[in-house]
Write a structure and sequence with these properties.
21% of the residues lie in helices and 41% in strands. The chain is α+β, with helices and mostly antiparallel strands and 289 residues long. It has two domains: 182 residues, Rossmann fold; 97 residues, Quinohemoprotein amine dehydrogenase alpha subunit, domain 2 (Lipocalin). The strands form two sheets. Strands 11-10-9-8-16-15-14-13-12 form a nine-stranded antiparallel beta sheet, with no helix packed on it. A seven-stranded mixed beta sheet has the order 3-2-1-4-5-7-6, covered by helices on one side. Helix 2 packs across helix 3. It is elongated and about 70 Å long. The protein starts with a helix and ends with a strand.
Length: 289
């Protein structure tokens, strides 16, 4: 009966969150993530010993503790419930990993999460959406974000995996859980000046409008505007295509790939119909208004 009450409580809160003022929102009742889902979340994020895993709403600490024990990562769990924090820290000590796993009582909306290389969460949709601007602003490009069941709205995941379960919310039966993965993209919106010595094209300006890991825009080249195609950014890796006129007057499809470093990009250009390769550089000149 207790498990059925817990499930009913979760469903009621899920339905009501849209009508609750922001200052009264919580991440939801304590409902532990099934260990099978924990394993898939960490697998999907490709957690390694080089990672710092930060779990928002860490509950009994199982995500952080699994990441530390199985992959040798370091971990931080943030949880509003003091008893769960005490339990998780005691468990880390019992398992001999307290030097690499710690748990702190804190509101996740106020948390400092910038050290994370992997961020995990299992929170109700309203809280998850409230966290989206913070995730995009505070986390470094390339940070992996993994969520259980609830997505990030318009920010489409890079991958989605469905996990079959024989138990969920403490009840047995046939269940499924969704696991979503995102990679935090570098912020590239603005105007850039691009040069490509030896590529046979003049320097030009490229205006980019970004929507999470996708972007569009156009290049101003020799008095004409060329539409950017296939714009995509994964962490700090950027790719796009432009059909540009060369110094010989011929228009050719050119494939740009590069690495973003703040207000600079460096990379390579390839012809879509050939193997020729040239280097290119870009410097951000202004933010779009």
């Amino acid at each position: 009966m207790r498990h059925l009450q817990q499930l009913a409580c979760l469903l009621i809160i899920f339905a009501a969150t849209a009508a609750v003022p922001a200052q009264q929102l919580t991440g939801g009742p304590y409902v532990p993530t099934p260990q099978t889902v924990v394993d898939e979340m960490l697998r999907l994020a490709k957690v390694s010993a080089d990672d710092i895993v930060v779990d928002l709403g860490s509950g009994d600490g199982r995500i952080v503790l699994t990441a530390v024990q199985r992959y040798g990562a370091r971990g931080l769990g943030l949880e509003i419930d003091e008893e769960l924090v005490q339990f998780s820290n005691a468990e880390a000590k019992r398992l001999g990993v307290a030097d690499r796993a710690r748990f702190v009582q804190q509101d996740v909306l106020e948390a400092h999460i910038g050290e994370a290389t992997v961020l995990t969460l299992y929170l109700l949709p309203a809280m998850t959406l409230m966290l989206r601007p913070k995730i995009l602003h505070d986390l470094k490009p390339g940070t992996r974000v993994v969520a259980h069941d609830f997505d990030l709205g318009e920010w489409q995941p890079d991958r989605k995996v469905v996990v079959d379960l024989s138990e969920k919310y403490g009840t047995s039966g046939a269940f499924q859980s969704n696991v979503f993965l995102w990679t935090v993209p570098a912020r590239i919106e603005g105007e850039w000046r691009i040069t490509a010595a030896g590529a046979g094209i003049p320097a030009f300006r490229l205006r980019i409008k970004q929507q999470f890991q996708r972007f569009e825009g156009g290049a101003a080249v020799a008095g004409r505007t060329v539409k950017l195609r296939q714009g995509e950014i994964n962490g700090t890796t950027i790719r796009f295509e432009l059909a540009l006129p060369g110094n010989d007057g011929k228009v050719r499809r050119r494939l740009f790939a590069g690495t973003v470093n703040g207000d600079a990009i460096r990379g390579e250009i390839r012809l879509a119909d050939g193997e020729a390769v040239w280097n290119w550089n870009a410097a951000r000149t202004a933010a779009l208004r």
